[in-house]
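Notes from the pairing session

We agreed to fold both candidates in a single pass and log them together. This is the raw record for the first candidate, unedited. Please don't reformat it; downstream parsing expects exactly this layout.

Candidate A
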Amino acid sequence: MTRIVILGGGPGGYEAALVAASLGASVTVVDSDGIGGACVLTDCVPSKALIATSETMTNLALAPGLGIRPHGPGVTADTSSPAVAWGMPSGSDSGTPALTPPEVVGVDPVQVYERVRELAKAQSLDIERRLEREKVEIVHATGRLVGPHAIEASNGETFVGDVVLVATGAAPRILSSAQPDGERILTWRHLYDLKEIPEHLVVVGSGVTGAEFASAYRALGAEVTLVSSRDRVLPGEDLDAARVIEDVFVRRGIEVLNRSRASSVRRIGDGVIVELSDGRTVAGSHALMAVGSVPRTRDLGLTDVGVRLGPGGHVGVDRMSRTSVPGVYAAGDCTGVLPLASVAAMQGRIAMWHALGEAVSPLRLGTVSSNIFTEPEIATVGMSQVMKDAGAVAAEVTTVPLSRNPRAKMMGIQDGFVKLFCRPGSGSVLGGVIVAPRASELILSVSLAVENGLTVDQIAHTFSIYPSLSGSITEAARVLRPRDFFAGFDNPS
């Protein structure tokens, strides 16, 4: 029986364990954080649970535009005006619907955070029970490599395997000039221990994490300032999509400070002062540091056994998840391939399929779909606008605004679009970008097309529900269809 030892119980680790167990291997997982890892306990699961609550508040903001009026004691806002909320001046023609007045609907922060924590714990427990049912041995301890195939745990035991998988994840990046205290100066892992919704949250960093929490906390009623060192929000994303999100942020009252680098964050009594490199300061009740992450690869004994690390400390792996040492694999955020739970899980599965002699295809990053959980969401898969503009890939592209989608009109949705890329001539779908509510659900059809080499003809011939947001995907495909699409329809002979 092949013996597998896995260091780390996050998505890369526990998915690898399930595959290895199903193939008859003896599997031990050494984990110190709790099964599910940071993804389940402090990152993906709790953050998206919090965002689910914020989405409900955003939907309430749409209510007056749909003919729903709050009533009862304490209603003083003019809900007939679409510009009452999100910091818009009265008389604005933005069309932004009013947020339901807080006198009628409010947020209970204690219940919100308790629900988020309980969901994370429950998900972790579900995964742990699944591993136990599959006869996976779980060791709750820290561990380090003391040989190419040996992991020494902090409980004194040493576990030797034919194959070792390192899946230790990453941790929030900490700036020496902005040391988190867990009360006022925070990383995203501190948020769920708060007792209140911050009165004024200063978010430092405008990448995915910063944008998601800025969007969520504004919907939950916090004043939000977003400090971005770049010239726009979400600098690594599709430019058209990022523009939509930044426009929405500004319209909803988020103060966006582009080209503004934070040099330090200091706690002042019950608040914080964020000092910018140009001498300006931003005062707030709390500061959220969203300035990236670092791999958890220090003091694991990796270099002692010959595992090569990159300049940033990431474990170097190939598309089969192999490291520089035979029999030692790595998966997840500690590899720096793509910081996505889905990628970590696939890396872990690929590692076990390969190690145990199963037929397996290398990791294909060109088919990975990702999502940013702002409101609206941004979902992407395959090639990007940057690749097209740089001439890296020949492609045709079209963008269909959601504002002309009938279902979007019915739902009061004004922001967003569907963008598709296809190969000239053949019409093969190369990628797509969707900006919409629940774009994370809509992107699947585009992902299927990219993964399986479908053409815009095939998508255009596929029935979509009328009315539906997904109808904009088939509409985009019809715009991109080859010129001879439906040839002969006008002249049947």
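Candidate B (folded immediately after A)
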Amino acid sequence: MKMTFLGHATIYVEIKGKKILFDPFITPNELAKEIDVNSLEADYIFVSHGHEDHVADVESIAKRTGATIVSNFEIAMWFNGKGCENYHPMNHGGSWDFDFGRVKYVNAVHSSTLPDGSSGGNPGGFVFETDEGNFYYAGDTALTMDMKLIPAQTNLDFAILPIGDNFTMGVDDAILAAGFVGVDKVLAMHFDTFGFIEIDHDQAKAKFKEADIELTILGIGESAEF
């Protein structure tokens, strides 16, 4: 399975021919200025929570491509109110069989307010079970014991975890999170975009290596196979 990093927490993956975007934040991200948001195709846009740095390009991409927005009830309905016709609301603990695989919406410990001040409901992450592999997109979250519930139901191949600290888990907690969800491969997200979340890449990789976990830190626009 090939994952492409588009900056911050924005990940692109194609599963069974379906194009999937997570938390598109490209246009306002100076580090992602080489990415042409108007050329991105999507069948689905998964949104973990309502903060601007995770929803900035959702509306424009959804309206242009007709992508289905998948998020919690509050966020899905907020985008529907802005004219996005295709949406699929979920809530914590719920699962759904999509045409590319099964997805469960799981807990995250964070906050969630939409750009206009509306409630973004409760933040979450997504567990994907597909014929091409299983993975966990954590969204923005602290380390939480709820993560230990995931491997009780799903054998993951890898996890996509925030490592930037300050607003989310940092490197040390992400290492613990990898153990909680039972993976030895992690794709990093939510780092370097702002001064508050700049990290030392070499130090992060060394800490993960010491824990026998393979950490992949991609440059914007780069891809890796998992």
